[in-house]
Amino acid sequence: MVKVVAGNWKMHHGPLQTAGFFDRFRPEVEEGSVRIAFFPPDVSLRSSRTCARVQADFGVQNIHWERAGAFTGEISAEMAKEAGASLVLVGHSERRHVFGETDVDVGCKVRAAARAGLVPVVCVGELLEERKAGKLDAVLRRQVAAFAGSLADCRDYMVAYEPVWAIGTGETATPEDASAAHAIVRSALGALGRCPVLYGGSVNPANARALMSAPDVDGVLVGGASLDPEVFARIVEAGGALAGAV
Fold first, then answer.
1. Predicted model pTM
2. 170 pLDDT band (50/70/90 cuts)?
3. CA dist., res. 138 & res. 184, Å (int)
4. Catalytic residue among 92, 101, 182, 237, which?
5. CATH number of domain containing 160
6. Hey, how many other C-beta atoms are within 10 angstroms of the C-beta on 20?
7. Fewest C-beta in 10 Å: which of 44, 183, 225, 232?
């Protein structure tokens, strides 16, 4: 399976900064050796698609589950699709723990993505206290159960395991930790588990290859390190170097 290297820019890089990013983003990889994806802010989606000089997929960081309505500040899956997005992040830990998004909300958003023909990249992961309490398995299975029933309607989908304690902290799960969590995710998905499962949480050029070489790790979802074009290019190159090797 070709590795997936996705960058979540969060609330960074407006349209002008986006153009500057792609002027400098020149990973040295063979075409087709790695699947590159970007999740820019909504206001930078068009600039990303216009300025990118590499083959890549582009997505939005969030959607509402309704098609339209009085939901100030939200966008629908249909709007995202019309604007040129092919992917959507669903259930990122910041949506869950900063904005109060629930497992039920995540399930609704996956159904909306399927309805619009978007590829959902659904995020799951445990808090530090949940991990210390030995609840990793239970947390991941609960989160997966909330959206698994909607995946059959998706033409394509991915899951991203993000241990919340490793996001933006400099702490990173070991490759063994990532493999163990990904195995739980695949078990919870059952027959639906033949999809890319990505690792996210303080990914950087120093650990990217080891993480992507681990069993059951099909790629990475990168946060802060995706904001620098040279740094992100090195992570993409690590994924491309593994083509056909695992």
1. 0.96
2. confident
3. 9
4. 92
5. 3.20.20.70
6. 12
7. 183
Which entry of 126, 162, 182, 237 is annotated as an active-site residue?
162
Q: Which tokens sit at 27?
A: 């990973």
- Is the separation of the CB atoms in 178 and 205 below 8 Å? no
The residue range of the domain holding 58 is 3-241
Taken in order 60, 52, 200, 94, the sign of the CA dihedral is negative
pLDDT confidence of residue 244: 58
8 A C-beta contact, residue 34 and residue 236: yes
Whether residue 119 is contained in a domain is answered as yes
User: Cβ of 149: how many Cβ atoms within 10 Å?
Assistant: 12
User: DSSP string of 80-93?
Assistant: HHHTT--EEEES-H
For the question of residue 237 being annotated catalytic, the response is no
> How many domains does the structure of the chain reveal?
1
Residues 6+ apart with CB under 8 A from 128: 164, 165
**What residues are paired with 38 via a beta bridge?**
7, 58
Residue 246 lies in a domain: no
Q: Residue 86 falls within a domain, yes or no?
A: yes
Burial tier of 176 (Cβ tally within 10 Å: 0-12, 13-18, 19+): exposed
**Residue 230 annotated among the catalytic residues of the structure:** no
